[in-house]
TrEMBL record:
GO biological process: polysaccharide biosynthetic process
Residues in UDP-glucose/GDP-mannose dehydrogenase C-terminal domain copies: 308-398
InterPro entries: 6-PGluconate_DH-like_C_sf, NAD(P)-bd_dom_sf, UDP-Glc/GDP-Man, UDP-Glc/GDP-Man_DH_C, UDP-Glc/GDP-Man_DH_C_sf, UDP-Glc/GDP-Man_DH_dimer, UDP-Glc/GDP-Man_DH_N, UDP_ManNAc/GlcNAc_DH
Descriptive protein name: Nucleotide sugar dehydrogenase
Keywords: NAD, Oxidoreductase
Keyword presence, Nucleus: no
Molecular function as annotated in GO: NAD binding; oxidoreductase activity, acting on the CH-CH group of donors, NAD or NADP as acceptor; oxidoreductase activity, acting on the CH-OH group of donors, NAD or NADP as acceptor
The keyword Lyase is annotated on this UniProt entry: no
Native source species: Listeria weihenstephanensis
Length: 422
């Protein structure tokens, strides 16, 4: 089967490689010449466990090529970004999706399959994409087949989860669902779930909204614990020993293109009936300011204004900084006049060594749960002005013996004043 994928980012590239390693002829399209050039030189441009090896396999089989333009194919997969609009509810910006659809229309032929994998607002496939294809002269479900098949993978484990996770197949018509299932059935070992396109769209959004809401509860608890001088992490640990309770962990906020973005698409689609979702977004979006406020209190007795940030990505062991609360905290501290050094072994734009980043620092802020941060060598922090660490991810297990270690459950013990509830 000939497949063209539009968008070679964190989902489009692994998806393309997956199909290519299962015998399909794949053309991956991206508007960035640097991405196309890098891929055609045999290298992937994102950090993802095991993906380079799979890419090597696809190239060896002659089943993948990168291009700036689409080509005639049997199936087209749209996997382009869907950022937020700058409006009241941060609705779904469909600019890239619409551009991708327009780019493939000249190449569409009778019998083709069009899949939208991009995360989109409810009813987008039926209300936006379908009319675009119909205006081009196609009858959906007869001439060509259209479906929304959202990804549901964990960054850092994408190659495995694309194969083994259940996959929702949201066809615009039953015939569209059948056509899409036939294609995904060649690579997916997990269950293929029949759905309408709109049900698939909302299901994907609610999967991430569920997590966002539950993280917001944990973050609100961290604020309550700080206000009342109660260790919120201890409270969570004890509460989770109840057989029907599973509180999430608090942190500096949520990021990435899922949790920090998708709930807005639901709220924007139905603003009058989504107050809980909107409140959860406000709570999680407030956490960078909460961490900065704690930092300012901790730095009141510091001999200098140097703060070291550990981690810039939105989650551990990846290189993705999209919507990262760590980046927000970094920028807010710089705006407040702090000398901020960043150490992140996964991000090329953070070139400092751990020793360089920690030298003369008065506080380390752990903002990402990279595995490298579980144990911090004493030699790395030996030249700090004050050996202190605020671990917002509660990941650090071992540091220098003289290091003062704090987390979001006990930071109140070290500032002795209430934090502002921003």
């Amino acid at each position: 089967m000939k497949i063209t994928t539009i968008g070679l980012g964190y989902i489009g590239l692994p998806t393309s490689i997956l199909f290519a390693t299962h015998g399909h002829q794949v053309t991956g399209v991206d508007i960035r010449p640097s991405v196309v050039d890098t891929l055609n030189q045999g290298l992937i441009h994102i950090e993802e466990e095991g993906l380079q090896a799979l890419y090597n396999e696809a190239l060896a089989a002659g089943n993948f090529q990168a291009s700036l333009t689409p080509t005639h194919s049997d199936a087209f997969i749209i996997a382009v970004p869907t950022p937020n609009n700058d409006d009241r509810y941060k609705s779904c910006d469909l600019t890239y999706v619409e551009a991708a659809v327009n780019s493939i229309i000249p190449y569409l032929e009778e019998g083709n399959l069009v899949i939208v994998e991009s995360t989109i607002a409810p009813r987008t496939t039926e209300d936006i994409v379908q009319p675009m294809l119909e205006q081009a002269g196609f009858t959906i479900g007869k001439d060509i087949f259209l479906a929304h098949c959202p990804e549901r993978v964990l960054p850092g484990n994408i190659a495995y989860e694309l194969v083994h996770n259940p996959r929702i197949i949201g066809g615009v018509t039953p015939a569209c669902t059948t056509a899409a299932k036939a294609m995904y059935g060649t690579v997916v070992e997990g269950e293929l779930i029949d759905s309408s396109a709109s049900e698939a769209e909302l299901s994907k959004l609610m999967e991430n909204t569920y997590r966002d809401v539950n993280i917001a509860l944990a973050n609100e608890l961290a604020k309550i614990g700080t206000d009342l001088h109660i260790n919120a992490l201890k409270v969570i640990e004890m509460a989770n020993r109840h057989p029907r309770v599973n509180l999430h962990s608090p942190g500096p906020g949520v990021g990435g293109h899922c949790l920090a973005v998708d709930p807005y698409f639901v709220a924007a689609a139905s603003p009058s009936f989504s107050p809980l979702i909107q409140t959860a977004r406000e709570i999680n979006s407030s956490m960078p300011a909460f961490v900065v406020d704690a930092t300012e209190k901790l730095m009141q007795d510091a001999p200098n204004k140097k703060v070291t940030v550990f981690g810039l990505t939105y989650k551990g062991n990846i290189d993705d900084i999209r919507e990262s609360p760590a980046m927000d905290i970094f920028g807010m501290l710089e705006f407040q006049g702090y000398d901020v050094a960043a150490y992140d072994p996964h991000v090329a734009s953070a070139p400092l060594t751990i020793e360089e980043a920690c030298a003369d620092s008065s506080l380390i802020l752990v903002l990402t749960d990279h595995s490298e941060f579980t144990e911090i060598e004493a030699t790395a922090t030996a030249h700090m002005a004050i050996p202190r660490l605020l671990d917002t991810k509660n990941i650090v297990k071992e540091t220098a013996a003289n290091m003062t270690r704090m987390h979001l459950g006990n930071v109140y013990e070290h500032i002795q004043v209430k934090l502002l509830q921003r």
